[in-house]
Amino acid sequence: MRKYLMALAGALAFTTIGVANAAAQQAGAAAPKDATITAEVIDLSCKLVHGLSGPDHTMCAQVCADKGIPLALFSNGEVYLPVSMGMPGDGSNAQLKPFAEQKVQVKGKIIERGGVKAIVIEEIKKS
Ligand SMILES: [Cu+2]
Hints:
single chain
């Protein structure tokens, strides 16, 4: 009986993992890819709504970040949203704020889903 229950538990766990994998594939989840990009650290709100960025906009970007607007990375005309591998995740504004409106080199993992590019920052330095 005990052996039967162990086998049943094992089969259930295996099935659950299979279902989770299938759900991830259906959602269009791409495996995170290691990459290094050169980018500008932008304030999403001012960049997208008002077209503002660059050294003259540094102070505004830092104020926006303090108010909870995400800082993001802009590279080759594309926006990369910083995300976290943790659950719940951690925000990236504290990490990005010292580099607001500067060029940086970022090493991390890139994830694309639903037409959005996201990046898990592993290393960031001034470029
Ligand atoms: Cu701003």
